[in-house]
Write a structure and sequence with these properties.
The protein has 209 residues and is an alpha/beta fold. It has two helices and 21 strands. The chain has two domains: 77 residues, Rossmann fold (3-Layer(aba) Sandwich); 109 residues, Hexapeptide repeat proteins (UDP N-Acetylglucosamine Acyltransferase, domain 1, 3 Solenoid), CATH 2.160.10.10. The chain is 14% helix and 21% strand.
Amino acid sequence: MGAGGHAQVVGDAIEAAARVQPGSVEVAGYLDDDPGRLGQELVGGRVQGAFAGYAAVPHDTLIVAVGTNLDRRRIFLDLVAKGCAFGTVIHPASVMAPDVVLGDGVVIMAGVVINTGTHIGRNVILNTACSIDHHSTVGDHAHVAPGARLGGGVTVGAGALIGMGAVVLPGLRIGDAATVGAGAVVVHDVLDHTTVVGNPARPAVVASP
């Protein structure tokens, strides 16, 4: 579900898994509401129509491959209400402890490391080369961006975004729908619906018009 840049990286991860275990998985196709993408040949498959046409494309499971958290959450919950089944994409170049718990629809990109005792919620993106240390929790619909680092015992709230290269020190909580800016170093808990930036991370100041 989706045919943008993020979706194509998801398709590449599926293709990489298929190369490791031939015949285990394949891309059934892409769906996207942008009519300009119809018929495009992407990684492993073709754009076959809009989101609403998912039932017409033979498939076993769906992946909502949309990068924006709010949009991904909306699409995912709409499909849940319709009784759809969701797969999990795990790039073979990732490392994950055997006791890690993954929710439906999770996408784990190349170079990701997830350590023991960690719980990952539904519809989460763990993007390229991020790391989630031991006994952490990542809530539903969250996105941990490329190169971000979470220490042990970190809690990331539902729908939160941890920006590229950000660092969250052990034991902290990032609130629901919070945003940690790229390169930020978080040394204190972040409240729900709050954006923090900088080193040390502080709430972002919005300039007056």
